[in-house]
């Protein structure tokens, strides 16, 4: 059974007297432990789709379910990380994570233990008692990831989480996320504009056109992923295929996809 199942999803917004459909008959299955990136042009509905999966936005018709259970709102079975860090500025790093755990009804002792484990996971132990204002952008996003993972969600939903970071920090965060995912194996739905990022991180890439799923690409690159892979023939070929699809062309056959890895 797929961890996240979206079937025949329709979503529209009211604009004055007109109704604009932003998602049309979307069907998508994301399996247990699968890393799936959603790419496409701005305004195609990527973030709306993720928000619906998170239970933060309603929809007109269709089915959205986790392990066969229909989503009726936000829940601790799904962790969410946005581009903005959404940390509480009056709480320290540890307290921000403990705040989420208290909401999930963990005891005080469990909150401290789990918070410290996840601070270590994202390599921020020396900054456990720091305030968000004392952290860099990349460090704030590490805290946001640690917080989202701390209550053991089945699914991690990420909407352009590294979009506001500089190139160097962004790549460091990609490596961190890849390492965490490969160690802990959870289901990830990842929205991004960066095709290179999608290829590097994903098992599968879903290309959206305006309000629809246009095509999908399997990513047959071996794991663990490493930086040298980004200049391999297989990586660059898939990157070109995804870009061609986003620009409106049909995906070309993946000739010898593993060649040059």
UniProtKB/TrEMBL annotation:
Listed CDD domains: ABC_NrtD_SsuB_transporters
Molecular function via GO: ATP binding
Keywords in alphabetical order: ATP-binding, Nucleotide-binding, Transport
Database matches in InterPro entries: AAA+_ATPase, ABC_transporter-like_ATP-bd, ABC_transporter-like_CS, ABC_transporter_ATP-bind, P-loop_NTPase
Source species, domain of life: Bacteria
The ABC transporter domain, residue ranges: 4-235
PANTHER family documented for this protein: ALIPHATIC SULFONATES IMPORT ATP-BINDING PROTEIN SSUB (PTHR42788:SF13), TAURINE IMPORT ATP-BINDING PROTEIN-RELATED (PTHR42788)
Family stated for the protein in its record: Belongs to the ABC transporter superfamily.
Protein name (database record): Sulfonate ABC transporter ATP-binding protein
Organismal lineage: Bacteria, Pseudomonadati, Pseudomonadota, Gammaproteobacteria, Enterobacterales
